[in-house]
């Protein structure tokens, strides 16, 4: 599609250019003059350099001996893939342009004719040569990308294997002197590696601190320190001022203040790191070892900064009214010093570990450093838990509501269990397991705190945008003509969907990331899960989601608008009865919604050939539990098409008699005489005996009364009185004529039945009541009494 659009654009340029309509193949300029812009060249040496770069990454991966040493190469492989994509994207327009130019020239004739100029033949040959070269380059780039993608998969498998082996590896306990010996007296090889690293640092520093460069180095370092300290405070104050004076008062301002605090810390830290990196590499790039160390050091800095930034944003000890979590002031004050202590300690210790990983020191050094990290984290977190436990106990004693939070209690319990497991693992020699537990606990805090902040911001933003109390909601209400209730529904739906999506991302991030994971790695891992093999088989890609949502919303709006037009404008002006109009409107809605669902799935990129498993699952479900629903749905379609009953008919089924009010997809609503509604499944209207009183619109009602008179009456007089009463009633029809029948003769009296017909069964009850009143009145005037039944013995 992309190449087609570019081809059409090129042809349009040819046609719209001055004199383009008269441009013939024989008038094409020479090949050297056709290029309006220089072509991107990817030479064979460039491809060889990319291959060497990939081979170097493979060597680094094969030389890794622990889990953490694979993080840097994995990032570099991802960067390599991005570079390949960038080069391929730059060559695709050239490929499309060359294809269009060759199409304009046409294929070479079988035999050289006189009309074929030598210039055109030369130009065709040159274009073919350029296109073949571009095609070969793109093919080579695709092969390199495929190899890099396979390498990513291999890295994931190696990391998983190394992690499993490290977690199950048992070494000396921290109580054993042998555990500390690698740190106290390192091996000569480890000392040599450390000295090599220090020498490289000295050489880099000598380049940075060379005469003539010291002033700029000092300026950059001081500027970085200023951004990290004073800049952070100024940025936080500026964003706070913006939130207070530009945000509406309420929950959105409070969540925006917390988000602004974390954003200011992260932003100024990123600027400071980039300034330091530029100060060290503005003349010469870092050596591969220092480059690896700098990348891992950057990850550690961001992780530690997230700990402090999120803690300051959520605890908000200086402004308790800005605090997002339902937390008592005493708990927040108790927690306040520990995040900074933990972040600073982890930054120092993790930096030392990254030195060991970058230099490739022995596994004994790495294990000992992991044990030190686990011990220090336990030493920091255990006093934190004890202090918070005492504060929570005091709050529970005072019946404070903040102390009884179930979520806070769960977090406290999980952290306590993790500390116990980590301490036990250190004592028994499972040092890597202890370090893993402590790292995962810290990572869980970063993920949960960060996503909690995002959830609050999104929730409050949705409430503000669609609330009629604020300017944004008022604008949407006036522009789209929505009511307050509809705005509230949209706000709840968007807020719920956003929070559900963020919670899903939080769970995925919790399991696919860790301390030292970059944002690019997280994005790749999350998209690998959300866009995995299952979704790829269904051809669902994130780019199609917006199209699918738009198709769904626009389709629903059009169906509702067309149904209102049918109900209010078109159908009332036809000769169809109201029941037929209602049936057509309902049938149109059902077909329309089904069509919208199909269009939405098509916009989403779902291939119907890949939905066989869904059909199989539905078949099993229909066989076990959905058969009644499907049967009622099919019966509803039969009712709407064959119309044995329709809206407005008076029916009687299973002792229920009333008017059909609505025929839905699954069931039919029948309104009784007392205005109550009976829901009858559609399948019963098809399978059971049903009496449709008003079918065809010509049904007549029968007003029949049975009266018993004494034996001494004059039957002819009574017959004439009854017939006159019926004839004089305006609801009684002349044809068929009313009649009186001698029904029964008994010792108690004579039973006469008088019958007349009315225009509709719906007025039978009212007509019979009027007739009874009139008959009793005339009988009384005539002195005729009704027979009294014999009393029971």
From TrEMBL:
Name of the protein in its database record: Mechanosensitive ion channel family protein
Membrane topology qualifier: Multi-pass membrane protein
GO cellular component: plasma membrane
Ranges in coiled-coil conformation: 40-67, 113-147
Residue intervals of the Mechanosensitive ion channel transmembrane helices 2/3 domain: 586-627
UniProt signal peptide: 1-25
Domain DUF3772: 139-197
Lineage: Bacteria, Pseudomonadati, Pseudomonadota, Gammaproteobacteria, Pseudomonadales
Source taxon at top rank: Bacteria
PANTHER family: MINICONDUCTANCE MECHANOSENSITIVE CHANNEL MSCM, POTASSIUM CHANNEL RELATED
GO molecular-function terms, A-Z: mechanosensitive monoatomic ion channel activity
Cell location: Cell membrane
Keyword Repressor assigned: no
Membrane-crossing residue ranges in chain numbering: 214-235, 256-279, 338-355, 367-386, 407-430, 436-455, 500-520, 540-559, 580-599, 611-630
């Amino acid at each position: 599609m992309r190449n087609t659009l570019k081809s059409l654009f090129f042809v349009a340029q040819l046609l719209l250019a001055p004199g383009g309509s008269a441009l013939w193949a024989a008038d094409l300029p020479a090949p050297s003059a056709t290029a309006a812009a220089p072509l991107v060249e990817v030479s064979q040496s460039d491809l060889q350099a990319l291959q060497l770069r990939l081979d170097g990454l493979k060597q680094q991966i094969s030389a890794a001996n622990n889990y953490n040493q694979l993080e840097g190469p994995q990032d570099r492989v991802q960067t390599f893939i991005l570079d390949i994509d960038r080069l391929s994207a730059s060559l695709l327009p050239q490929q499309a342009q060359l294809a269009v130019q060759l199409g304009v020239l046409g294929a070479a004739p079988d035999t050289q004719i006189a009309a074929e100029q030598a210039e055109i033949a030369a130009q065709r040959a040159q274009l073919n040569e350029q296109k073949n070269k571009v095609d070969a380059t793109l093919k080579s780039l695709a092969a390199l990308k495929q190899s890099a993608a396979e390498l990513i998969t291999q890295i994931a498998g190696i990391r998983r294997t190394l992690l499993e082996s490290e977690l199950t590896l048992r070494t000396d306990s921290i109580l054993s002197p042998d555990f500390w010996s690698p740190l106290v007296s390192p091996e000569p090889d480890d000392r040599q590696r450390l000295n090599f690293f220090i020498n490289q640092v000295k050489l880099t520093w000598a380049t940075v601190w060379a005469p003539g460069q010291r002033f700029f180095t000092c300026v950059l370092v001081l500027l970085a320190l200023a951004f990290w300290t004073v800049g952070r405070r100024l940025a936080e104050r500026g964003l706070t001022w913006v939130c207070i004076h530009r945000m509406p008062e309420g929950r959105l301002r409070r969540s925006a203040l917390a988000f602004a605090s974390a954003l200011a810390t992260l932003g100024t830290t990123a600027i400071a790191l980039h300034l330091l990196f530029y100060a060290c590499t503005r003349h010469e790039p870092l050596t591969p070892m220092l480059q690896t160390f700098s990348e891992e050091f950057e990850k550690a800095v961001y992780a530690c900064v997230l700990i402090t930034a999120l803690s300051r944003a959520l605890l908000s000890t200086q402004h308790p009214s800005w605090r997002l979590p339902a937390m008592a002031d005493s708990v927040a004050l108790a927690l306040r010093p520990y995040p900074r202590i933990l972040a600073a300690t982890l930054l120092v210790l993790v930096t030392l570990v990254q030195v060991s990983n970058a230099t490739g020191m022995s596994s004994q050094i790495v294990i000992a450093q992991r044990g030190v990290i686990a011990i220090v984290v336990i030493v920091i977190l255990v006093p934190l838990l004890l202090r918070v436990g005492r504060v929570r106990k005091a709050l529970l004693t005072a019946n404070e509501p903040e102390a009884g939070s179930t979520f806070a209690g769960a977090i406290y319990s999980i952290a306590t269990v993790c500390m116990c497991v980590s301490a036990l693992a250190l004592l028994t020699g499972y040092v890597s397991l202890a370090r893993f537990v402590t790292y995962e606990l810290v990572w869980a805090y970063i993920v949960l705190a960060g996503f909690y902040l995002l959830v609050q911001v999104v929730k409050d933003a949705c409430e503000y945008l669609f609330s009629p109390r604020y300017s944004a909601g008022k604008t949407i209400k006036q522009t789209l003509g929505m009511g307050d209730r509809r705005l509230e529904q949209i706000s709840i739906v968007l807020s719920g969907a956003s929070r559900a999506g963020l919670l899903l991302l939080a769970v995925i991030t919790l399991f696919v990331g860790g301390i030292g994971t970059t944002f690019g790695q997280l994005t790749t891992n999350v998209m690998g899960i959300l866009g995995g093999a299952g979704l790829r088989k269904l051809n669902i890609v994130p780019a199609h989601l917006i199209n699918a949502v738009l198709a769904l919303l626009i389709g629903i709006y059009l169906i509702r608008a067309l149904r209102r037009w049918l109900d209010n404008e078109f159908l009332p002006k036809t000769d169809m009865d109201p029941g037929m109009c209602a049936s057509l409107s309902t049938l149109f809605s059902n077909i329309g919604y089904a069509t919208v669902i199909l269009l939405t799935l098509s916009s989403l990129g779902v291939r119907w050939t890949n939905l066989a498993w869904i059909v199989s699952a539905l078949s099993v479900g229909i066989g076990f539990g959905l058969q009644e629903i499907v049967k009622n749905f099919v019966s509803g379609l039969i009712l709407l098409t064959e119309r044995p009953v329709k809206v407005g008919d008076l029916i009687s089924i299973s002792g229920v008699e009333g008017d059909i009010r609505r025929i839905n997809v699954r069931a039919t609503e029948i309104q009784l005489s007392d205005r109550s509604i009976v829901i009858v499944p559609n399948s019963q209207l098809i399978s059971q005996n049903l009496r449709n009183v008003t079918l065809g619109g010509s049904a007549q009602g029968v007003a029949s009364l049975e009266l018993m008179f004494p034996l001494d009456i004059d039957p002819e007089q009574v017959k004439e009185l009854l017939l006159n009463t019926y004839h004089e009633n305006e609801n009684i029809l002349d044809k068929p004529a009313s009649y009186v029948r001698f029904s029964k003769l008994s010792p108690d009296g004579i039973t006469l039945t008088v019958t007349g017909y009315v225009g509709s069964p719906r007025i039978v009850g009212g007509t019979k009541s009027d007739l009874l009143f009139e008959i009793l009145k005339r009988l009384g005037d005539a002195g005729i009494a009704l027979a009294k039944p014999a009393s029971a013995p």
